[in-house]
Design brief:
Elements lengths: L5 E2 L13 H10 L4 E2 L10 H10 L3 E2 L2 E8 L2 E8 L6 H11 L2 H14 L5 H6 L10 H10 L6 H9 L14 H10 L3 E4 L9 H13 L4 E6 L4 H14 L2 E5 L25 H4 L6
Parallel strand pairs: 1-2, 2-3, 6-7, 7-8
Antiparallel strand pairs: 4-5, 5-6
Helix pairs in contact: 1-2, 6-7
Bound molecules: adenosine monophosphate (AMP) and manganese (II) ion (MN) (3 copies).
The site of one manganese (II) ion (MN) has 4 residues, from loops.
């Protein structure tokens, strides 16, 4: 197979991105993407629009999502690719996963109020494109625009991560359920940005082992938050666990994301690209 410019990880206004599916498709195509997937957090409401826009720009499309999972007390993200977006079990599972976000957002706002940041819930809501998907990113945008912090990274560091005033522990889907929803809907499950998790070597080994046991097929190797050294490290992990490798920018916004759609290095030779496993699901 010739080298393909595939970008299989990004977010629209249907979750915590700032662009519409149509604007993302135009940007991806403009950057030379040939195979694209929109992977909104816990949500597949943008899939039809994304696929239509991909085709209008001459790109091939894979259905996508990024499911929030709780594993060993940490939040892990599992990407689904090439599933049937009408699968009822998958739709129900995602809806359930989205379910706790509203209450969590009110608790985040209560934590922020205690350190003098008032009305953050109402503030964050102004940035939300999908009422079922209020995320920490929306709080971060509100706090940057209202002058509390200089950028979203600063908001996360000072307010929204473990031990900080706006951090609320949350129980997401189980690893088993997320992998099964995707797989039973005809897609493949992929561990997103593995270098981002604060796991010990043993915990990381357990994540990959259990993921495989549940039917997981791939790992994101080349992605916006990985360093070149991590491309090498997780390429080796892919080989060690017999997983295919994925490539995706994790693009959220022209103002926030330092890696643009389609602008990542290619996967190293010798890795099996995830799109070879779902070749029959490419539309
Ligand atoms: P949530 O699903 O509400 O917990 O929000 C998670 C999202 O927050 C991720 O998908 C990222 O888009 C964003 N995020 C997480 N950590 C950071 C960070 N350190 N800096 C900027 N954005 C972050
Ligand atoms: Mn996000
Ligand atoms: Mn993620
Ligand atoms: Mn993402």
């Amino acid at each position: 197979m010739p080298i393909l410019n595939a970008d299989l990880h990004c977010h629209s206004v249907v979750s915590d991105g700032t662009l519409t599916p149509e604007a993302l498709a135009a940007r991806a195509a403009g950057n030379g993407v040939e195979l694209w997937a929109l992977t909104d957090h816990d949500e597949i409401g943008g899939q039809q629009r994304a696929m239509a826009a991909a085709h209008a720009h001459g790109m091939k499309y894979l259905t996508g999502t990024e499911i929030s999972v709780t594993f060993a007390g940490e939040t892990v993200h599992i990407i689904g690719l090439g599933f049937d977006p009408e699968d009822p079990e998958m739709k129900r599972g995602l809806q359930e996963t989205r379910g706790g976000r509203e209450d969590r957002a009110r608790e985040i706002a209560a934590g922020l109020a205690q350190v003098g940041i008032q009305d953050a819930y109402e503030g964050a809501l102004r940035y939300v494109g999908n009422p079922e998907l209020i995320s920490r990113t929306h709080f971060a945008r509100f706090m940057v625009d209202s002058g509390v912090c200089k950028d979203t990274g600063d908001v996360f560091r000072r307010f929204l991560t473990d031990g900080k005033p706006g951090y609320v522990p949350h129980r997401w889907a189980s690893l088993k359920h997320a992998v099964e929803w995707i797989t039973k809907a005809g897609g493949i499950a992929v561990i997103a940005h593995p270098a981002r998790y604060k796991f010990t070597a043993n915990e990381e080994y357990a994540l990959f082992t259990e993921f495989k046991a549940h039917g997981g097929r791939g790992v994101e190797v080349v992605t916006g938050s990985h360093t070149p050294a991590e491309y090498v490290k997780y390429g080796e992990t892919a080989r060690e666990f017999g997983l295919a490798a994925s490539r995706g920018s994790d693009f959220h916004s022209p103002d926030e994301s330092h890696t643009d759609l389609g602008k990542l290095p290619n996967l190293a030779a010798g890795l099996t690209p995830v799109w070879e496993l779902v070749a029959d699901r490419i539309r």
